[in-house]
Write a structure and sequence with these properties.
66 residues, four-stranded antiparallel β-sheet
Length: 66
């Protein structure tokens, strides 16, 4: 997904529900300052990787049940 942080947080339960077991999710296009809020929305059910940062942008990714 490469959409705004607010919708990614709001849609977290629905997006995670659509993942297959051990499915991956990648959330990109986040400003560095938005990453923690997005991580918090997905962390209860997603095992998150280390974030990737580039020029003020962050990518959050992880695995369901990983």
């Amino acid at each position: 997904a490469n959409i705004l942080a607010g919708p990614l947080v709001e849609l977290a339960p629905r997006l995670v529900d659509r993942l297959a077991p051990n499915g991956r999710i990648v959330l990109a296009g986040l400003l560095d300052r938005q990453a923690e809020e997005v991580r918090a929305a997905y962390a209860p059910r997603i095992t998150l990787d280390n974030d990737t940062h580039l020029e003020g942008w962050t990518r959050v990714a992880g695995t369901l049940g990983g």
